[in-house]
Amino acid sequence: MSTNLQELLDSNKQWAANTEAREPGFFSRLLEQQTPQYLWIGCADSRVPANDLVNLLPGELFVHRNVANVVVHSDLNCLSVMQFAVDALKVKHIIVVGHSNCGGVKAALLDARVGLVDNWLRHVQDVRNHHHEWLDQLQPEQRVNALCELNVLEQARNACQTTVVQDAWARGQEVVVHGWVYGLHNGLLEDLAITAAAADEVAPAFQTALRAVKRRYEQARFSQLSSEAS
């Protein structure tokens, strides 16, 4: 790779030319307005490119990413993105997206010391600590992905509890919060069924989704134990 990153600039020129050839006037139209219907809150992992995973063009998906797709009420960066998306762009869907084998989640699970990010991952460790009794019952190889999914549920609930979303719901604005997980092993997104469109839907949606996650991992654990015993 060159020191001036010319290969990336060349790739950009090719992408722009291909895009304009495929859809003449695309960039002129894009310049005039930004009207995405979706806000994606995902992990910063380079293997999880938001637009590509859902096959959306620039301008169709508003994106915020951080390590381990965390939504906390003290993170003004995330909250500012959410407020602009909801209040200015009028997005209708907020999707919190985690992914399997997440390095940040794994570090939080194992108390691995990485550096400054350890302080950020305390939020994921809080999720681990809250669910530690159940996680400890799983096979060791199941725990990382199980915590990835639990983290999505908790962060989606946090998104619902922000002043941004609560205020939108209070004034009757249509905003639906979702929680998804992406499988690095198969390229597929899975809806974890924590879906809320009003304040009174948050708690039951969370509990239903939590039961579903636990049931799925427990069934997998029992199947594995039965297979090993036979």
From TrEMBL:
<keyword id="KW-0479">Metal-binding</keyword>
<comment type="function">
    <text>Reversible hydration of carbon dioxide.</text>
</comment>
<keyword id="KW-0456">Lyase</keyword>
<keyword id="KW-0862">Zinc</keyword>
<dbReference type="InterPro" id="IPR001765">
    <property type="entry name" value="Carbonic_anhydrase"/>
</dbReference>
<comment type="similarity">
    <text>Belongs to the beta-class carbonic anhydrase family.</text>
</comment>
<dbReference type="Pfam" id="PF00484">
    <property type="entry name" value="Pro_CA"/>
</dbReference>
<dbReference type="InterPro" id="IPR015892">
    <property type="entry name" value="Carbonic_anhydrase_CS"/>
</dbReference>
<protein>
    <recommendedName>
        <fullName>Carbonic anhydrase</fullName>
        <ecNumber>4.2.1.1</ecNumber>
    </recommendedName>
</protein>
<dbReference type="InterPro" id="IPR036874">
    <property type="entry name" value="Carbonic_anhydrase_sf"/>
</dbReference>
